[in-house]
Amino acid sequence: MRFRTLMGVAMLAAASPGAAAPVTTSIKLDNLGYRPLDPKVVIFTANPGATVQVRTPSNTVVFTVPTSGGTIVAKGQDGPASNDTVWWVDFTPFAVPGTYHLFSPSLNQQSYEFVVRGDAYRDVARAALKTFYYQRCSTPKPSAYAGPWSDAMACHLADRTTGPAIDNPNRGIKDLTGGWHDAGDYNKYVWSATSNAILFLLRAYEDQPAFRGDDLGVPESGNGVPDVPRQLSPARCEYRLRRAEIGEQPSQALRTQARGEAQPEPCSEIFG
Length: 272
What we know:
Elements: H1 2-15, E1 27-28, E2 41-44, E3 52-55, E4 61-65, E5 71-77, E6 85-90, E7 98-104, E8 109-110, E9 114-116, H2 122-134, H3 143-146, E10 188-189, H4 192-207, H5 227-231, H6 235-245, E11 253-256, E12 267-271
Antiparallel strand pairs: 1-2, 2-6, 3-4, 3-7, 5-6, 7-8, 7-9, 10-11, 11-12
């Protein structure tokens, strides 16, 4: 009897607002956070029980689903992709800025911490924009802008004298420096990968005032001109024009012969 009493006290203590609960990956949320007025839906892959609480880092309960608002909906099996059983916990009505985690009294487990903040996506948006600087080809990247990823050397300068690939029309020697490296390799494309990047950057610049800043920390920053259009010129768009001059088909790309090296061999051929 005494053992059962002690166990009961321990369980109550673990579920109380003052006690820290183990973090579980069964609660899947937006790790970047949520803006106050946006929908806020969290995926549970373990039964959350009748209620889910929003708690502060000190474990103060500030909102309870569904008592304070929101819903808990069983969605059933996810299917063969994961074989998970899924519940959707919607706490959209909660809009107070701050840092929080979700807690399931039934599971006695909590989520990772997240923020509710008007600029919740600011840091990741800035990081995504600056990625285009790191991907620039034929451009030195001093530590003042690139930090630990700096490279004082301009890569692939041999692209100034690029000739045709085997079995492709010979349009002479062309300067194909510039452009962006591809996703993790040194290929450079002019098809939809590049055109989509340009389109989405310009749409973001046009639609969202937050994308019109001049403080991204690239060489063009601080000159009074927003950084997004400067990210697109001159080398990036001029590269597309130079490629168009030789009559390329959309599927063609400039490829490097060596990958994964600090300073790879020059991008030396155009492949159909």
